Amino acid sequence: MQFGIFSVGDVTPDPTTGRTPTERDRVKAMVAMAQRAEEVGLDVFATGEHHNPPFVPSSPTTMLGWIAARTERLILSTATTLITTNDPVKIAEDFAMLQHLADGRVDLMLGRGNTGPVYPWFGQDIREGINLAIENYALLHKLWREDVVDWEGRFRTPLQGFTSTPRPLDGVPPFVWHGSIRSPEIAEQAAFYGDGFFSNHIFWPKEHTQRMVELYRRRFAHYGHGTPEQAVVGLGGQVFMRGNSQDAVREFRPYFDNAPVYGHGPSLEEFTEQTPLTVGTPEQVIEKTLTFRDYVGDYQRQLFLVDHAGLPLKTVLEQIDMLGQEVVPVLREEFARRRPAEVPDAPTHEALVRAAATEPEGATTA
User: How does DSSP classify residue 324?
Assistant: First the structure.
């Protein structure tokens, strides 16, 4: 099982000091987070993609390429790559290039995005969001698996005899997670291709996450990729930790209360009761995270959000230290102990290359 962190890259004033970080501050902070994640033994760093204030990560592959040069083991991923407003040809080329630079330590999470104005900025219509996600990924999937592509669809100019370059490293495309908060069509898409499904798992109650993951597992088996238990699932999560729970709640409350994404809504106590947010001790984070398995089954990747809402970098790095030193080692042991033998490991480039080498000649995937 893989553990890591993800960032949405928001530029938010610190409500305790009134200071707003610069865009440069936030970009550099995300790099520092990734480096610290590797230092403390986490597996994955993922960045969001946004094209509107108050967010900075408009070019995930640029950031991940920079981080690749400064790390050796860390898997570099996206928390969202906008499959709806990015050209699939550019996604194919950018992430294949990143694969080569990072020696295969790359995967990506595709999503529709939930910021309406972004669609017309890139010449698209949000009302076509699902259709764009389906068609664009069909092309991306083809571009990575066929050296010469002829293609025609609704949303971009046709391709004739086109080859995207560079080709995927070792002939194996990056592993794809399809991320969704609320769209069953995206769970269906992940199942159809036998790809991973990543549930955001931050804002919604566990019952919603359970329904989405169950749909994906059921349809994964329907399409012949394996049993429901062999489907590849990832979850988000959100934590804030201190040595005792009272200190954690007291320190985090002003950030929660003023956060753009959920501030001025339910109380911190209501939100922690109704969603996976954990504010407390490392032991409480371990206890709550282990319960995720009760309603989604055994899964392969757990990413935590630790840097939003104006939290200063010093505090964020302390959170990463606690994850790496106190939380993740226990979670690794407990999840491994409880996992049945038939549940697959988390995907890596090396594992995908081995699997491709054992496929019968002429075999194709969906």
Answer: I
Angstrom distance (rounded) from CA 236 to CA 179:
10
CB 305 within 8 A of CB 237: yes
pTM: 0.94
Distance CA 102, CA 98 (A): 6
Domain locations in the chain as residue ranges:
2-358
Show the tokens assigned to 110.
């595709």
User: Each residue of 39-69: pLDDT tens digit?
Assistant: 999 999 999 988 888 889 999 999 999 999 9
At the fourth CATH level, which superfamily is domain 2-358?
Luciferase-like domain (3.20.20.30)
- Give the chain's mean pLDDT: 93
Q: What's the length of the chain?
A: 366
State the pLDDT confidence band at 361, using cuts at 50, 70 and 90: low
The CA-to-CA distance between both ends of the chain, in Å, stands at 25
Report angle CA 177, 180, 184 to the nearest 5 degrees: 110
For 150, phi then psi, to 5°, come to -110, 130
Give the three-state DSSP class for 301. strand
Tens of pLDDT along 236-285?
999 999 999 999 999 999 999 988 777 678 899 999 998 999 999 999 99
For residue 262, give both structure tokens.
């959920």
CA distance 92 to 110: 12
Residue 41 DSSP one-character state: T
Residue 239: name the closest of 2, 45, 6 by CA: 6
* Phi, psi angle pair for 116, to nearest 5°: -55, -45
- Among 25, 22, 100, residue whose Cα is nearest residue 65: 100
